[in-house]
Amino acid sequence: MTAETSQTLDRGLRVLKLLADTDHGLTVTELSLKLGVNRTVVYRLLATLEQHALIRRDLGGRARVGLGVLRLGRQVHPLVREAAMPALRSLAEDIGATAHLTLVDGADALAVAVVEPTWTDYHVAYRAGFRHPLDRGAAGKAILAARQHPMTDPGYTLTHGELEAGACGAAAPLLGVTGVEGSVGVVMLADVVPERVGVRVVEAAREVADALR
């Protein structure tokens, strides 16, 4: 902590992060131990966060993330999309294929930004707002690969015809971006995705991740 920071705010944010990392919630005692503060401080933090609907407490007294965080989260997609656009434009123009940024939305993969190449005679139409199950398509499978191998770089994922007949996809996950789970990829009409496309997609995913840090 420095002189310019708020200890109370810091503790409140730490509470939210701790609760976000668990599916079953945490008790006051558990939070007290993790934060290294007494239970009275935790009670006050929880009461304040609950007033703003940022946390909720179940009948057993376990604290969980509240629905109020959704109102804050709605502003995330525009910020992420804006940060990703330069890398997506470069990727689409270099490869001559539609580039996209996809984020996790529940059990689905949701395309939040799409850039189509300007110089091709034809390309696959792909729209922001398109969603599909995480276990179908390169974008979702790249995200799942990162989940399965959190300590390593899984590289890129290739798929063929899983979302649209005759269309191939290549995608790489966003790595090292706290609070954002997603991937960058391209979709194209081809029988086989050239290796250079996969390498370029990984590069673009790293560019987007750097822009979001």
How would you describe this protein?
With 213 residues, the protein is of the alpha+beta class. 42% of the residues lie in helices and 21% in strands. It has two domains: 7-65, Arc Repressor Mutant, subunit A, CATH 1.10.10; 73-212, Beta-Lactamase (2-Layer Sandwich), CATH 3.30.450.40. A six-stranded antiparallel sheet has the order 5-4-3-8-7-6. Helix 2 packs across helix 3 and helix 5 packs antiparallel against helix 7. The chain is elongated, with a radius of gyration of 20 Å.
The N- to C-terminal Cα distance equals 21 Å
Element pattern in H and E:
HHHEEHHEEEHEEEH
State the CATH class of the largest domain: Alpha Beta
Care to count the β-strands?
Answer: 8
* CATH homologous superfamily label of the largest domain: GAF domain
Number of helices: 7
- What number of structural domains do the residues give? 2
The largest pleated sheet is described as: 6 strands, antiparallel
Radius of gyration: 20 Å
CATH architecture of the largest domain: 2-Layer Sandwich
**Category by helix and strand content:** alpha+beta
Mean of all residue-level pLDDT scores = 91
Q: Helical residue percent? A: 40-55%
In order across it, which strands form the biggest sheet? Answer: 5-4-3-8-7-6
Low-confidence stretches: none
Q: Which fold name fills CATH's third level, the topology of the largest domain? A: Beta-Lactamase
User: What amount of the residues lies in strands?
Assistant: 15-25%
In one word, what is the shape?
A: elongated
GO molecular function: DNA binding; DNA-binding transcription factor activity
InterPro entries: GAF-like_dom_sf (IPR029016), HTH_MetabolicPath_Reg (IPR050707), Tscrpt_reg_IclR_C (IPR014757), Tscrpt_reg_IclR_N (IPR005471), WH-like_DNA-bd_sf (IPR036388), WH_DNA-bd_sf (IPR036390)
GO biological process, one term: negative regulation of DNA-templated transcription
Keywords: DNA-binding, Transcription, Transcription regulation
